[in-house]
Amino acid sequence: MTRPLYVIKAGSATLDLGTVHQELALLVARGARVLLVAGGATGIERHYRATGRPMPRLRLANGDEVRYCPPEEMRHLVDAYEQVTLPAVEQALAALGLRVFTSVAARNRLVSGRANRPLKAVNAEGRPVIVRDHRAGVPSDVDTARLTALLDAYDVVCVSPPVHDEAGGAGAPLNVDADVLAAALSNALDADHLRLVTGSAGLLTDPEDPASTLPNAYPGDGARYAGGRMRQKVRAAEMALAGSADVAITGPHTMAAPDKWTRFWRTREPGADLGLLTKVVSVPSVSGDEAELAVYLADWCRERGIDAEVDAAGNLVATRGDGPRRMLLLGHLDTVPHRWPAEWRGEELWGRGSVDAKGSLANFLEVLAHADIPEDGQLRVVGAVEEEVSSSKGAFHARDHYPADAVVIGEPSGAETLTLGYFGLFKLRVTASVTSGHSAGMDAVSAPDLLTDVLDDIRTAVLKEASDALSAVIDIRCETGRARHRAVGILNFRIPPSADLEALRAAALGAAAGRDGVEAEILRATPGHAGGRSGALVKVFTRAFAQAGIRPRFVVKKGTSDMNTLATTWKDVPMVAYGPGDSALDHTDEERIGSMEYRTARSVLADAVNRWFALGEGSAR
User: Fold this and answer.
1) 334 catalytic per annotation
2) Residue 174 in 3-state DSSP?
3) pLDDT at 442
4) pLDDT score of 170
5) Cys-Cys link to 71, which of 172, 363, 402, 423 (CB 3.0-4.6 A)?
6) Which pLDDT score is estimated for 509?
7) Count of alpha carbons within 13 Å of 12, Cβ hemisphere only?
8) Neighbours of 500 (CB within 10 A)
9) What's the number of CA atoms in the CB half-sphere (13 Å) around residue 134?
10) At 317, is the secondary structure helix, strand, or coil?
11) Distances (CA, A) of 310 to 26, 136, 247, 295, 382
12) DSSP reduced 3-state for 313
């Protein structure tokens, strides 16, 4: 699993309070990489007071007042960060057991910038003047290789203004706005999440009302409400929408109160009923980075009176009703890696996860919100973590904690198709090791040679037991040591529901046994599962299809889903999979879903769920 990257900007007033330090430590504990951008207004004032140096100011033509930064002043600005702000950050985070790197962005040209145009200001007499020596600019280039190496080496990397002047200028660095610096870093490093922490509860629609947080903003919306310093935060947030991070202004002085966030969205849905789908796709959630999406969806549910929580595994769990007749809608939060900005193109939403399988999960939640749940019924939606990786952590937790009488798995096969089952998964790690030596030696066999030979033998042995299985070598790596040369391969089989797993184990391990320098380990042995078309759950879908004028297809898919995980211990529980989208687009950079496809699947699912609950007790199977 990849480690998500958070870029977090916090001003020195926020850092002084210390709450954010604890929140950074929690992110690190969760496996995230953290890049902190430290603002320095309070630290600069403290430094100037301590040194007895007056702080020069400029009054601009628009009435705003800014810190004046001529060339001779820049070294004092750098001193303020390096002697006050950054040491305080390092000390506070080190006290929490974190390894911290701090630097102003100008050092070693971590970030370069270009100077702004001369400023229009007014002098002491109120007359307009042009100020040409103000050392201010905007970020223009980021040393992504160096910063990436630092992020891999440290728990928290903290940078602050100023930045290096790409043109040399007067030999002094350029002061830049810290929020804008954070946005530039977020885009350059392809961050997953950008948080601009402020002293207010996000962006307020009424500056006099601390409870007037604007929860959602689209490009251009924020400027109507932002004044003073908040204008730069809004500017930075909208700059960051050029990347694929999810962006929020948070507060007061914390990231732990999502109800006091202003979230910024880059694409506006073409219809109000597509809002949840759009937002779910817009929040990155690659396997291992599902927490932000889980929290967002739990809040969405609570706003609608639905009991919702994030469980011990990290799953979203949302429930209506507490009766004994239980239906489970099991989707997943995570996606495969590689993201890009979500975007509506006409009536199609392009974005990672739009098909696999955020469209299904959004439909589940909308159906949950509106379904007719009888007194003896319970409808539960689980958004599982780590479905796209071998662990299936979320589904195993659901299997052991959320029993049900019927299950719908959220996976795409199209609005007009019902999936009755899936092939299983049989996965091995095979290691081949030989004595190090020159490949030109007589009868030399390299580790990759040996590995390839063994993999072929295992494949042949397994396919004799399950001729319908599909096989692929999905990973190979080589390691050269002083004494031994090793090659490691991962061999993957998709096995039909009828396959005998014990026979496959014996065949695979037997093919590797007795070979010098060869080790084989079973990584995953999940059986296939397929149900028939005569059960009550399939029938309610069949009637829902008919009501919608659809002649459905019924399929057993050669992939694997969380249905297989449940089926390892759940016996005689009817299960199907249903969800919108073309599964041929799964895991591709063409992933997209149409609005009518999404709406049709939602309508069919809602009808099927209501029909299932309308069946009398004892007939729902």
Assistant:
1) yes
2) strand
3) 41
4) 58
5) 172
6) 95
7) 20
8) 13
9) 22
10) strand
11) 16, 45, 21, 7, 10
12) coil
Torsion of CA 241, 243, 246, 249, to 10 degrees: -50
Q: Tokens for 63?
A: 């009435």
| Ranges of residues in the chain whose predicted pLDDT is under 50 | 438, 440-442
Q: Which of 73, 192, 290, 334 is catalytic?
A: 334
* DSSP structure class, residue 84: I
Cα dihedral across residues 183, 185, 187, 192: positive or negative: negative
Question: Do 272-422+529-614 and 424-526 show the same overall fold?
Answer: no
Query: For residues 500 and 493, what is the distance between their CA atoms, to the nearest angstrom?
Result: 13
- What pLDDT, on the 0 to 100 scale, is given for residue 229? 86
Q: Which residue has the tokens 């910038």?
A: 113
In 333-482, where do the E strands start and end? 343-345, 348-350, 377-384, 406-409, 417-422, 424-435, 470-480
Selected from 3.40.50.261, 1.10.287.1490, 3.30.70.360, 3.30.70.100, the CATH number assigned to the domain covering 424-526 reads: 3.30.70.360
| Strand 406-409 with 325-332, pairing | parallel
Question: What residues are paired with 593 via a beta bridge?
Answer: 349
Q: What CATH fold (topology level) applies to the domain 5-52+68-112+139-264?
A: Carbamate kinase (3.40.1160)
Question: What single-letter DSSP state applies at residue 75?
Answer: H
- Non-local (6+) Cβ contacts of 608 within 8 A are 408, 540, 541, 543, 544, 578
Query: Residues 155, 238, 387, 465: which is the catalytic one?
Result: 387
In the numeric block, the tokens 């929490």 are attached to: 96
Runs of H (alpha helix) within 192-348: 230-240, 275-282, 291-303
**CB neighbour class for 522 (10 Å; exposed up to 12, middle 13-18, buried from 19):** middle
CATH homologous superfamily of domain 272-422+529-614? Zn peptidases (3.40.630.10)
| pLDDT, tens digit (0-9, with 9 covering 90-100), for 144-191 | 999 999 999 999 999 999 999 998 755 789 999 999 999 999 999 999
Q: Alpha-carbon distance 104 to 149, whole Å?
A: 17
The whole model's pTM is what?
Answer: 0.91
Name the token pair of 436. 């190090």
What is the residue extent of each domain of the chain?
5-52+68-112+139-264, 272-422+529-614, 424-526
Answer yes or no: 348 catalytic: no
Q: Are strands 470-480 and 484-495 parallel, antiparallel or unpaired?
A: antiparallel
Q: Are 497 and 529 in contact (CB under 8 A)?
A: yes
DSSP bridge partners of 427: 492, 524
Residue in the block written with tokens 């949302």: 318
The b-or-e profile of 220-245 (16+ CB within 10 A means b, else e) is ebbeebbeebbebbbbbbbbbbebbb
- At 410 the pLDDT is 98
